[in-house]
Specification:
three-stranded parallel β-sheet; 14% strand; 2 helices; alpha/beta
């Protein structure tokens, strides 16, 4: 079953063997940034989710960071 790991610390994801890795924003707020205005933050979140969906549908052979 394909999965995507949205990760704030990519080297750890690589070490544990995650295959599809999407870098996140920051440890306390992986899918957002509370310092942004709501519209900008929504766009950021949408971008990360869209990147994860692209990673999910991409055929890969080895660990891949998107």
């Amino acid at each position: 079953m394909p999965v995507v790991h949205i990760a704030t610390v990519v080297p750890i994801s690589l070490t544990v063997g995650a295959n599809r890795i999407v870098p996140a924003v920051a440890i306390p707020h992986p899918l957002g940034n509370p310092k942004m205005d709501p519209a900008e933050e929504k766009a950021l979140r949408r971008s990360l989710v869209e990147k994860a969906l692209t990673a999910l549908t991409t055929e890969i052979e080895d660990q891949t960071v998107f």
